[in-house]
Amino acid sequence: MKSNTAKRFYSVITLLTFSLAAPLIAMADESQEIHIDIPVKLKEAKVVYNMDHAAFSGDAPVGLAHMTLMNERFKQIGTKAQISGIFHGDAGYMLLNDEAYNKVRKTKTGNPYKTTIENLIAKGVNIEACALTMKGNKWTNANLLHGVKVNSGADGRIVELEQQGYAMLQP
């Protein structure tokens, strides 16, 4: 990952961590404390991220930052969670291995999202690529990062997961 991309990515994660922190956050002026009226306590959570476009905060992909943060936060607070990221359309390239990424993006840097995606997979997040997106771009399973699964169609897969009780988030 490029150093600027990594710095921005971790800046986004830091910002999101503070915004989702469960304890009260005191501001500089004590009279301006944040009072939580509706604490969110999840025993279980099923979340599917619809990754159909690349949304960024600087160079950092927002969806990957949210998946990382949510997965870490759920582990911290003991929420039994299942998280899936369904990549298709314009965001499909994010799952390519270095060689395929370089060819598609006309660069020599390799996939700057590889480490983040591999870390998410290693931590139990299900990452899927859409076969229709792959077919349209002439990609094969060999072009994908290790551990990425392929579904038969992203839209149908998202509907299937929602029918199984997943909440869909669209970064």
Overall morphology: globular
Based on CA atoms alone, the radius of gyration comes out at 17 Å
Helix content: 25-40%
| Estimated share of beta-strand residues | 15-25%
Overall tally of domains: 1
Average pLDDT number: 88
CATH superfamily: DsrEFH-like
Strand order, largest beta sheet: 6-5-4-1-7
Please tell me the CATH architecture by its name.
3-Layer(aba) Sandwich
Give me the CATH fold name. Hypothetical Protein Ychn, Chain: A
SSE string: HEEEHEHHEHEHE
What's the level 1 CATH class? Answer: Alpha Beta
How large is the count of helical segments? 6
What does this structure look like?
With 171 residues, the chain is an alpha/beta fold. Helices cover 40% and strands 18% of the residues. It has a 5-stranded parallel beta sheet, sandwiched between helices. The model is unreliable at 14-19 and 22-28 (pLDDT under 50).
Question: What's a quick, concise take on this entry?
Answer:
The protein has helices at 3-20, 62-77, 98-105, 114-122, 131-137, 154-163; strands at 44-51, 56-57, 60-61, 80-87, 126-130, 149-151, 167-169. With 171 residues, the chain is of the alpha/beta class. It has one domain (3-169): Hypothetical Protein Ychn, Chain: A (3-Layer(aba) Sandwich), CATH 3.40.1260.10.
Walk me through the topology.
Layout: H1 3-20, E1 44-51, E2 56-57, E3 60-61, H2 62-77, E4 80-87, H3 98-105, H4 114-122, E5 126-130, H5 131-137, E6 149-151, H6 154-163, E7 167-169
Parallel strand pairs: 1-4, 1-7, 4-5, 5-6
Antiparallel strand pairs: 2-3
